[in-house]
Backbone:
């Protein structure tokens, strides 16, 4: 026996060989087959199919080609794993019940929701769908890396440019070795809106977008087969951790046919086989696990899915439905596992991470495309510069060319004479005679000017990250414009999920804030009306170094917007403010809001649910007399991390925030009793990050104490620091132009002290006044004297100590009084029952 045939035999430990081989196999399955890339949301087979179709020029507006041709090209060039696996993957991308946004436009039999398979690839045809154009856009502009294919004859992309967030909008599922992914599809409008929100926060506020903001926009999965999602707790868990469970439930309605109830099912949970579901329900009826069904028919047609479940005469539809949900696939669980490849490593991602990785990919794609286009533009500019030099010296150029023995010597002679580069001289030698006309010269000059503008624009994008984000926003907004659609999957309340807000009575509360930012909440009924001039009752026990700075009225379910001295705004629900005893100090507000060090609450505004999307404005007034107006919709979805509300100067601070409809009068009052009344139309609406305009011109050592907007039938209630006050009819204050010094609106004397507050009231309302000692008095407006403009008023509260003073006031509206009356009636009824 020839011993040479054993020369290459090596002794190996079989355990180590098996281990190493299995690891290599596992990594191959994980990286090259089963898991999607976080950037384009595609597995290799899907990416190769789309790229092969792009190479075949199968755009959405071109004729279809046989599926067998597409499968053959994909297998022969890029994916040597069998034609059936390639065709199955392509078929799924063309099924409207599998993909939320189909990437392949199929022509022929591509299967059905009943589980029917597609026709053979020789019978069907396909081309890229319209949305796939955005998956492959700019791939020829060096936007992504390419690598050799398995034969090293061709190259293929390692990832697609993917201008659409495909991983989320179409989802993905796959089983690798030791791990699996199951990402549900989402609505493209919600996902792109969330991405635009991330970009806006970076550009306008220079901050990251938190997960709660994203979840306010992306409500949950949006399945191609529609149906319903039961509850949101599983969705929120999945978005926070990357893993969670979503309960899907069929959409049904009950109709009467021939005197009998018929349950009609018109939408099924995602990936449920209709034919198997009907078989299952039939078996359940035969086995008597579900009672009350007399007949079952599949009435589906080209218009859509329709299963009719006819009930017996005495059957209760709700009881039968509950049985179907329990025992059949009319209710299914989708286990979310958002696992994807990040730098070729599998990683479980939450919602924020998926969107951030996608945005980073887009930054890389746009940067590479911009560099490609810049190099191309500079190359063309270089050629045109050569043209212009040659045309300026055309006689000499022609003479040199004619005197040269051949093309090479002509080039060398031109380079020696004019200093042309090889690229320039080649273009000049090949320049056609028509380029010598004056019209062609004008065209070259015009092209040169356009190139200079283009180069400047491209360099700006590369040098300024905000410009880069603006390009991404513009392009993804165009995708949104083209493919925006309404949500298909709707949400139903889960029986086990109870909203905390539903358990809390919506009633008026008094919210008190101290100078050291301690806050508390009490029911309005804690304070009863008194006569003016009284001593009031203790409203808060403060420390010696702390004083009460503000109080206001808000309902328990109101969202409270808190504005700070740094011009930021934060939001919490009123019921999240701890309710404590009347004399208690309360809780430090830093425990409720993520305030920056040194940041203090300067103003507040209670926002009811019906106003959060209303066509209204927030008007802001500062201590230095600046006024600003911004649309209320810009203050939606504010979390405890806050957002910018206005730009404010260092020596100024925000004082008051009010809501208006754009058609009211504005009024500003100062501590020395000056005031100005002007139409709010003189203040145009601006964005959140903008600064305002001057509302009143202040005299030396004077500052604004309060401001707001009112209707013509309001009275203005003035309160001074020594407890004096008055009402004055609004007609007493003539309108002026914004930015003037105003009129005398309150007579400030040593007895009254300086002006502290103004409120716009009517006789059916009440006012609460709080002193620096924490004393609160509640008065009826009708009991306060209505007198002229330049008067000092009457005593409203006895502030007590010499150094005590009025700090804040709050108006109790007619609505709050009506709600309080209901509470009193209920309390009296409870007392009688006892």
Residues:
């Amino acid at each position: 026996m020839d011993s040479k045939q054993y020369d290459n035999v090596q002794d190996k430990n079989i355990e180590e060989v098996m281990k190493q081989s299995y690891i290599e196999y596992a990594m191959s399955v994980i990286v090259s087959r089963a898991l999607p890339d976080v950037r384009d949301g595609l597995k290799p087979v899907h990416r190769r199919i789309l790229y092969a179709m792009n190479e075949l020029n199968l755009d959405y507006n071109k004729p279809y080609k046989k599926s067998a041709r597409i499968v053959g090209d994909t297998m022969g060039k890029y994916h040597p794993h069998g034609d059936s696996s390639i065709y199955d993957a392509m078929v799924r991308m063309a099924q409207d019940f599998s993909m939320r946004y189909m990437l392949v436009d199929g022509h022929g039999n591509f299967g059905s929701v009943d589980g029917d398979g597609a026709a053979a690839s020789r019978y069907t045809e396909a081309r890229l769908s319209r949305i796939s154009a955005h998956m492959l856009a700019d791939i020829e502009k060096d936007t992504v890396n390419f690598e050799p294919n398995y034969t090293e004859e061709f190259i293929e992309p390692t990832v697609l440019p993917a201008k659409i967030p495909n991983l989320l909008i179409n989802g993905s599922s796959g089983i690798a070795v030791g791990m699996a992914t199951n990402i549900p599809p989402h609505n493209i409008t919600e996902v792109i809106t969330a991405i635009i929100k991330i970009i806006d926060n970076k550009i306008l506020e220079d901050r990251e977008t938190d997960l709660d903001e994203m979840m306010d926009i992306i409500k949950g999965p949006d399945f191609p087969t529609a149906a319903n999602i039961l509850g949101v707790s599983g969705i929120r868990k999945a978005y926070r951790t990357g893993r969670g469970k979503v309960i899907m439930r069929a959409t049904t309605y009950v109709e009467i046919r021939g005197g009998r109830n018929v349950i009609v099912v018109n939408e099924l949970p995602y990936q449920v086989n209709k034919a198997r579901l009907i078989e299952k329900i039939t078996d359940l009826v035969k086995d008597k696990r579900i009672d009350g069904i007399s007949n079952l028919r599949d009435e589906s047609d080209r218009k859509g899915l329709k299963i009719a479940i006819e009930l017996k005469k005495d059957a209760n539809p709700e009881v039968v439905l509950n049985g179907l949900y329990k025992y059949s696939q009319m209710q299914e669980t989708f286990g979310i596992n958002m696992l994807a490849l990040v730098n070729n490593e599998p990683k479980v991602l939450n919602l924020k991470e998926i969107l951030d990785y996608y945005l980073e990919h887009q930054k890389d794609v746009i940067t590479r495309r911009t560099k490609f286009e810049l190099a191309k533009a500079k190359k063309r500019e270089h050629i045109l510069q050569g043209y212009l030099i040659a045309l300026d010296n055309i006689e000499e150029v022609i003479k040199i060319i004619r005197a040269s023995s051949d093309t090479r010597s002509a080039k060398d002679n031109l380079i020696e004479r004019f200093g042309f580069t090889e690229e320039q001289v080649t273009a000049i030698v090949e320049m056609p005679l028509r380029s010598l006309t004056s019209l062609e010269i004008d065209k070259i000059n015009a092209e040169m000017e356009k190139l200079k503008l283009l180069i400047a624009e491209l360099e700006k994008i590369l040098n300024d990250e905000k410009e880069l984000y603006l390009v991404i926003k513009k392009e993804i907004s165009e995708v949104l414009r083209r493919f925006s659609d309404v949500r298909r999957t709707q949400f139903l309340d889960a029986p086990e999920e109870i909203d905390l807000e539903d358990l809390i009575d919506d009633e008026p509360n008094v919210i008190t804030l101290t100078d050291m930012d301690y806050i508390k909440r009490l029911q309005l009924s804690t304070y009863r009306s008194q006569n003016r001039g009284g001593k009031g009752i203790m409203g808060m026990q403060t420390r010696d170094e702390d004083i009460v700075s503000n109080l206001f009225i808000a309902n328990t379910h109101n969202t409270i917007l808190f504005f700070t001295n740094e011009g930021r705004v934060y939001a919490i629900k009123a019921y999240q403010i701890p309710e404590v005893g009347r004399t208690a100090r309360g809780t430090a507000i830093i425990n409720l809001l993520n305030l920056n060090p040194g940041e203090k609450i300067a103003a507040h505004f209670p926002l009811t649910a019906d106003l959060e999307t209303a066509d209204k404005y927030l008007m802001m007034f500062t201590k230095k007399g600046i006024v600003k107006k911004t649309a209320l919709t810009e203050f939606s979805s504010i979390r405890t991390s806050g957002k910018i509300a206005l730009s404010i100067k260092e020596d100024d601070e925000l004082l008051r925030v009010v809501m208006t409809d754009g058609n009211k009068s504005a009024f500003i009052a100062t501590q020395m009793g000056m005031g100005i009344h002007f139409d709010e139309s003189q203040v145009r609406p601006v964005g959140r990050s903008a600064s305002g305009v001057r509302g009143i011109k202040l005299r030396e050592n004077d500052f604004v104490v309060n401001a707001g907007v009112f209707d013509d039938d309001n009275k203005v209630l003035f309160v001074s620091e020594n407890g004096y006050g008055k009402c004055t009819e609004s007609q007493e204050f003539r309108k002026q132009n914004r930015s003037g010094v105003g009129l005398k609106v309150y007579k400030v004397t040593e007895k009254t002290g300086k002006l502290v507050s103004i409120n716009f009231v009517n006789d059916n309302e009440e006012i609460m006044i709080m002193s620096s000692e924490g004393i609160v008095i509640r008065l009826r407006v009708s009991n306060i004297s209505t007198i002229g403009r330049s008067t000092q008023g009457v005593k409203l509260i006895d502030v007590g100590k010499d150094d005590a003073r009025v700090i804040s006031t709050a108006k109790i509206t007619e609505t709050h009084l009506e709600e309080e009356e209901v509470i009193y009636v209920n309390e009296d009824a409870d007392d009688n029952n006892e």
Q: What stands out?
A: Residues 823-834 have pLDDT under 50 and may be disordered. The first strand starts at residue 65 and ends at 66.
